[in-house]
Amino acid sequence: MEKSCVLYDRVSTGINGFDKTIDMLRLGDNVVWQVDSVDNYRHFVNHYIKQARLDKRKIVYMRFGCHISLIDDTYGIRVYDLNADEGFESFGTKVHDIITEEGLETFYVFDCLSELLRYWHSDLMIGNFFKITCPYLYELNTVAYFAIMRNTHTYSTIARIRETTQVLLDLYQIKNEYYVHPLKVWERYSPTMFIPHRSKNGEFSAVTSSSDLAALFVNTSIQEERKDYWDRIFDDARDTLFLSIKEQEEAKNLLISLLIGRGRRITTLSNKYFTLSDLINIHARQIGTGFIGGKSVGMLLARKVLETDGGDRFTKILEQHDSFYLGSDIFYTYIVQNRLWKLRTKQKKMSGYFKYASEMRQKILNGKFPEIIREKFQQMLEYFGQSPIIVRSSSLLEDNFGNAFAGKYESVFCVNQGTPQQRYEEFAKAVRIVYASTLSDDALAYRLKRGLFDRDEQMALLVQRVSGDYHGDYFFPHIAGVGNSSNIYVWDKSMDVEAGMLRLVFGMGTRAVDRIMGDYPRLVSLDNPEQTPLVYYDDEAKFSQSRVDVLCLKDNVLTDRALEDIMELDIGTNKEMFVKKDYKTIKRMKELGIKNRNAYILGFKELLSNSEFPSDMKAMLSVLSEKYDYPVDIEFTANFTQDGDYKINLVQCRPLQTKGLGNAVEMPELLDPSDCLFNFTGNFMGGNVRLPIDYAVIVDSKSYIELPQSEKYTVARHIGAINSALKDSQVMLIGPGRWGTTTPSLGVPVSFAELCNMSIICEVAYNLGGLMPELSFGSHFFQDLVESDIFYAAIFDGYENVIYNPEYLTNTENHLEHIISPNESIDGVIHIAKIDGLEIYSDIVSQRVICK
């Protein structure tokens, strides 16, 4: 039966009659057997292995299944024991690396692919694995044997395998005889090749008789499409609702592992608060398979905590949600569908981590979704109709204990106007943008700094109906914001750290989480809501919110409008809860001949002093923090009726990253005001510290202001280079206005990745250029500072009781050229000082900060 056969690219199966049936194998062939039992597959594998040994082939066995070994004698065969439980990406990458290492013309045996359902629970992912593995094996002129169990996988999965493989065979055992029915044999043909063949005494003969064929297939029919294995698991779980408590708990634990993940603290909370019915209902609103991701879990879990432990107080004021969840497996499917897996594998290596990111990002933005996913997207959009929606990142690592990923991935509003096709295109583009954001410089730098660069980062998505209502041509909620249950970055020593705080805006919440040009959200200390931060503001109107983010229905975009224009609309409730007339500005406009024009100051005075809203938010944060046993950070919106009643929409909840206050620090005496770099009260974040400083990097305010705009970006890139060069030192960064702004006229436009290695960041007020710091409590920038353990101070130079002596640094040698190679065009703008013994001290109780 076996013979030595090495004829050009022709390869023997080890069974002479079968070789004749399919005109032998070819180098490059992937051979897939559809079987009723692993034993049947094993029979043909051992003939193939015996022949490969005779032909002196290099043989590799990929072992990952729970079934018995497919090979009787593994002597001389390289066996790889793989762990599919690590997840699709880790498993797929490991297999790819092995194939690369083994090289050309290797002969492979893979365990039965259906075994992967034990670990991934998804037919979709098995199809994805085959789509990334088979073409690479073909490239390297290998021959590989695979098997799948009959009547186990969806027809769409079988179709993907059939489309990709070179040889697909149906194998039956009937009355101790084997029947092989070739379904696909690429680039080979004979008049009887694609009919069943009977194996008898080592020979294969075609079954051509109509009566024999009818007898063979009489009990076989074309069935309706089978459900994905994933959906069958949830169907089975639904059946256990009528069974014992023990069986329901077992089903619940399985569903938590499939939808939520395996992070111990989150799964413990999920197990405590989610019922089996809750999890089944989540699946009912899921598109695709896989985890729903950290942001979705956080939102759902927080709502469940408040419903369960908050009593009637929260159920009557919480706005309901009808969100959808795009499973994390869709992300991988998209990568595979668009033939990006090999590029992703290169980018995941440290050598290609940043090198291939831009190319990968661009190709993600230009990809297409499989038809089956497109249809699901259309159905969801039909459900939402023309209501505005938001597509939010919900990655596996996001919003978890230890890693918030605040602002690292995109969220995209879909105003959702136009024809069904236009609305689909807008939504699909939004999904691609969020997927591509996994490869942004900030996200990559964040993962690298947090030791996560080699972790699977699957991107699930949360699709939410935008909270708010139509007001003329615009759609927006009345208020939105961020809430922190623990306010350790206090701005006044009388404040209660445990009372929590809000960062509150009118309209869309984008202004609450980002640092916006010329706008200041209202910071609310929940122990004394009417108290304002201790900052030297001369003009209340100047340092409040002046523009409102809205969805423009007519233009189908997220945009902003002047507060005065929005307040001219009927907003469906009492405007005086949020604004008061700015009589000083109105008077000045009249003097200038501008009539019939109102001006407002957005201070939320009535809302914060004469409503239950602050106490409800304080109680909500307190309950969540207590049940999480950890400080929390939430995002919310609220909408009001004409009577002043309101509904709060809790759209996000995550563990708040904090350092704690730290031990009390003995502050140094300051006998001479000139004997320090700075000394002031308040306006810092980071608790009690005493930090030695190796280098101080200062951007001169006057020189920076005088640069043309293009050179201001050059300064930003130089700061990024310094950030990399001094990553192993304690560095203080000082500059005018706001670090990380997108507007060079407001500060230095660095990305967070360009300052992430700094130990201390200072923002300096420079009145001549209109550059002002912003104490960004609650913003994504704030979260970045906390997670990266960066101390922050705002220096209001020229204000009462503020000492700032920049010459303390600039009179020393400039080490800039010793550290990087600067452009001549920014000469005199950046100074790097190295002063032995320089330290920064801060004390929460006295609210003092000194650097000397």
From TrEMBL:
Domain of life: Bacteria
EC number annotated for this UniProt entry: 2.7.9.2
Cofactor(s) annotated in UniProt: Mg(2+)
Keyword Transport found: no
Keywords of this entry: ATP-binding, Kinase, Magnesium, Metal-binding, Nucleotide-binding, Pyruvate, Transferase
Catalytic activity from the UniProt record: pyruvate + ATP + H2O = phosphoenolpyruvate + AMP + phosphate + 2 H(+)
Pathway stated in the Swiss-Prot or TrEMBL entry: Carbohydrate biosynthesis; gluconeogenesis
Span of domain Pyruvate phosphate dikinase AMP/ATP-binding: 292-668
GO molecular function term, any single one: ATP binding
Recorded family membership: Belongs to the PEP-utilizing enzyme family.
PANTHER family on file: PHOSPHOENOLPYRUVATE SYNTHASE (PTHR43030:SF1)
Role of this protein: Catalyzes the phosphorylation of pyruvate to phosphoenolpyruvate.
Stated name of the protein: Phosphoenolpyruvate synthase
Lineage: Bacteria, Bacillati, Bacillota, Clostridia, Eubacteriales
